[in-house]
Amino acid sequence: MIRYIANRLLQAIPTVILVTILVFLMLHFTPGDPAQVFLGDRHSTPEQLERVRAEMGLDRPLYEQYLNYMSNVLHGDLGRSLITNFPVDDTILTRIPHTLELTLASMLISTVLGVGLGMLAALRHNTIIDTIAMAFALLGISVPVYWSSLLFILLFSVKLGWFPPIGQGSLDRLVLPAFALAFVSAGALARMVRSSMLEVLNQDYVITARSKGLSERVVIFRHTLRNALIPVVTILGLTFGNLVGGAVLTETIFARLGIGRMYVQAVVEKDFTLVQGTTLFVALSYVLINIGIDLIYVFIDPRIKYD
Amino acid sequence: MTEQSTVRVKLEQERGESRILGFVRRARRSPNVIVGTTVLSLVIILVVLAPVLSPFDPIEQFRRERLMGPSATHYFGTDNLGRDIFARVLFGGRISLQVGIISVSIASLGGTFLGLISGYYGRWLDSLIMRLIDVLLSFPSILLALAIVAVLGRDLRNVMLAVGIATLPIYTRVVRASTLSVKEIDYITAARALGAPAWRILFFHILPNVLAPIIVVSTNGIAGAIIAGAALSFLGVGAQPPTPEWGLMLSQGQEFLRVAWWVTTFPGLAIMVTVLGINLLGDGLRDILDPRLKI
Amino acid sequence: MIRKLRFGNRVGLLALLMTVVLLLGVALAPVSAQQTELTIGFSFADVDSLDPGVTTSSGVGIMIGHVFDTLIVQNPLGTFHPGLATEWRVNDDATEYTFVIRDDAVFHDGTPVNAEAVKFTFDRIVDPALNSQMAFSFLGSTNYAGTDVDGNTVTVRFNSPNAAFLDGVSQPQLGIVSPTAVEELGEDFGFAGIVGSGPFIFESFTPGSEVVLVRNPDYNWGSEEVFGRSGPSDLERITFKLIEEPNTRLAALESGEVDFIDGVPGLDVQRLDEDPNFVIQQFDQAGHGWSLMFNQEKAPSNELAVRRAVNYAIDKETMVDVVWNGFGQPACSPLTHVMFGYDPSTCDAFTYDPDMAAAILDEAGWVLNEETGIRERDGVPLVLEHYAPDRPLSAAMAEFVQADLAAVGIDFQINLVEFSAYLDIVRAGEHNTQNWWDTQTDPDGVMRTLFHSSNADGGTNRNRYRDEEMDRLIDTAAGIADPVERAAAYAQIQQKVNDEALMVFFEDPVVIYASVPNLEGLVVFSGGFQPNFYAAHFS
């Protein structure tokens, strides 16, 4: 197992490097120029554009730009944003705690809601409870997140005054965005849990366990839930990894600090250094999360072996 | 009962063609399949017949009647430019259904295939595929979409491809996880020991066992794909205004949420009904295809 | 109660601007019980830099206007008053401006404000390494010839007459910076800190979240004539919460999270207005409203007949109702109707007349193809490729125009693209049409931006209009010191713009603010565009 983990960590290096190279190339080959975004819609001349490009290092050969950037990164220097000149590490580090906080909170909520609803629906398969639970899940996945977010704000901030509508930094400011974000994944999760549970409930060994007269609770928790968890853990892991892209709308609507909105904007503005810095972070977190998930599989289902 | 289901598995494998017959027979008895098919067909018929059914041109602007609530003239009300929302929902389905269904198909077919072989063969192939999936996951999906469009051109097909590729990793990881677990089930290890060809094991033994999560993820993904497709329209890819499209109608109506709920509600309902139909159909099909599930 | 204030100063000096005292009550509540912290829901969420010399955002100007003092202060009615300069002189041909700098002002870091600091500020802006754009243009761009220091006076010299400089030097982008702080903070000036001499001291900036300013207790050089006070502000702290989403901004006000918001969505104005808990204020915006640029170097927008037809074919009156929910008014000129130099006769140039549009196109040989509904000439369809960034307002404008042009047989193709690709395309001149919006307080800036050939190579003149006569008119008008003569010169430019149908002017916008009713003492500069909270307080 240790060998496996070590091996996976080693594989992380080429993975991350490949991501940075691909992102670098794609940024360069898609239309748009950070120098133009920097100069924006104000007075500027072609000469000025050239000078800014030169300052940004965009006039140098691609491989040189890339190697230069990577060597700076290895020296711990993520550089400054091309558009705003703010330090990249600072920009990322001030946002990460808030993004993490939101992601963890919404994952907690969606796990409780999703797993609960899903189990309930599976155990009461084909009853009215099943139907209601699934209607709720359907609502979750097909209601656009900005719609539910704004509704939350209007109801809980403007009408009832229970929670502040914007910002970050305290628990009461976390509640609304976390629930709004959790709604979507809870729906998806509930359906996944229900489906997995139904399947496992009909597996031979569960049927055997039941026929042996084991109590329903033992059957559910010892035999069923465990095996039903594999796809659920996968989805949860992906949701967690998606912390960057998943919360863009939530961050925008709740005017919350976070990495998602910044990342999208940096891509659209072709802010190379900021995109690259964030990509490094995202790639690293995905790699680590996926190693974690693969290890959890073994824990859940001891039959799974990695060679 | 244990024996009964094992026997059924055996029987299914021995009689390939009667499988199909059995499938049809059981499909006709499944309420999920019937309701799901009905809802989905209804949506498709409405959308296909949009030019006949629609009382108005979806891009005609009745400027004096802007932001009017649902009425006998405008069943779903009008938007900020005074366009008939009923007409726009009907016509909008033409693009949205395509984007939703095709991009999810791309993602689920590609992702399932990769997940199956990755989970089944393991070793270096698993490492290679999964690291590529890691790369894909770490990518900003907007950049991916922009790159695909920069290379292949601005076209609706490329939007579907972009959404498809961006969501493919979910299927791969889900399918691989289930495969890892399923391939250790007794009858599959037995089949392997008996020397059954790999493709046969993969597609006839493992695939049916991992179908449930695929169906759930796909049906969940359709609503997401329709909305993501609209996000891409805003990047200058795919449908451009004034072409109606459900996702775009939703995001453009956001501004008017407080004064004109109908602008976003009806395209939202359209997505929900579509997803509902696909869900029911998917759940029904899963039940039928799963060899162990009783009907 | 909507207070719609129009004090457009059409005869007088350089401006437009309005003052507002928020409530009629003058009685002052006891100081101790007062709320002294002001929180603002601010729409300009994209802060590129807080450095006055660097920022290209008008929104940043609003915030840093509280941190930096300018040499002179322009009151909302367009008259000029002493700021850091106690007096000033302009030579006869407007090429030399001499300012006497007051001797009692200090920067927040203790550095004295003096003539050297003024020279430092201006010379820094023209240093190519700073890449200044907005401040650079307020300083007269390449026309700036240098600043001379003599004791406590500075003389700013220009290569050619620059009548717009009094307006420019009163803009926050030309606020005087502390040379010590600029040197100490280096690249972090504008991000980790900014140091000026204004009534508020920079406390913190979290990009994407907020800018916090605290009171400068030593402030004693405010413009009494403009603000009605000169000492430290009543407010101890101002927090600008950056909230991009209009609906959220509004909810933040309604839930009591913020006291003041800008960019109030038009559709919500009436509801807020009827609510006694809120006060709405509207101002006619200065500068240039929303418009459509025609690329002169690409067919068919290079053709006068086509441009004239488009001008006749668009129903601006309805457009204001539909696209701007009835706020603002149809535009006629590159200058909004409250600008100095605005010529009301421009409104006679084009009226909504689709038949006229059709007749002009017929005459130019563009014949309607009955099958497609699009006009053609020599087999070429009449297509205008329109490019715009992916914003809701851009979409609404484009969709409106598309329908009106389709009615006269013009195929207006909408291409909404992401912002950087949009800049690529329009700077390269691949568009037929694009939108424009600007806010300025001097007509020179507006005209130069839009029509001067020096801006035509990928710069802001994306009309790509090059005309020697126009260049001469703009340069001459910039140097006329006499207001009446100068206004006449701008009337001539506006005449020429409409004769050649260079653009379509859609709307003169209104700027809408909402606040809690007990916030008083707000002064709004720059044609309603720059609210200033120095004299603000809660009653």
Structure in a nutshell:
Chain B is mainly alpha-helical and 295 residues long. In chain B, 75% of the residues lie in helices and 0% in strands. Chain C has two domains: 39-283 and 512-538, Periplasmic binding protein-like II (D-Maltodextrin-Binding Protein, domain 2); 288-508, Dipeptide-binding Protein, domain 3.
Provide an overview of this structure.
The complex is a heterotrimer of chains A (307), B (295) and C (539). By secondary structure, chain A is mainly alpha-helical. Chain A folds into two domains: 2-74, no CATH class; 91-268, Orthogonal Bundle (MetI-like fold). In chain A, 78% of the residues lie in helices and 0% in strands. Chain A is built from 14 helices and no strands. The mean pLDDT of chain A is 85. The model of chain B is unreliable at 1-12 (pLDDT under 50). In chain B, helix 3 (31-48) packs across helix 5 and helix 10 runs antiparallel to helix 12 (262-289). With 295 residues, chain B is mainly α. Chain B starts with a helix and ends in a 6-residue tail after the last helix. Chain B has one domain (30-289): MetI-like (MetI-like fold, Orthogonal Bundle). In chain B, 75% of the residues lie in helices and 0% in strands. Chain C has 539 residues and is an alpha+beta fold. Chain C folds into two domains: 39-283 and 512-538, Periplasmic binding protein-like II (D-Maltodextrin-Binding Protein, domain 2, 3-Layer(aba) Sandwich), CATH 3.40.190.10; 288-508, Dipeptide-binding Protein, Domain 3 (Dipeptide-binding Protein, domain 3). In chain C, 27% of the residues lie in helices and 24% in strands. In chain C, helix 9 packs antiparallel against helix 11 (354-363), helix 14 runs antiparallel to helix 15 and helix 15 runs antiparallel to helix 16 (483-499). The longest helix of chain C is centred in the last third of the chain and has 17 residues, at 483-499. Mean pLDDT of chain C is 90; it is low at 1-32. The chains are: A mainly alpha (307), B mainly alpha (295), C alpha+beta (539). The interface between B and C is medium-sized, with 23 and 23 residues.
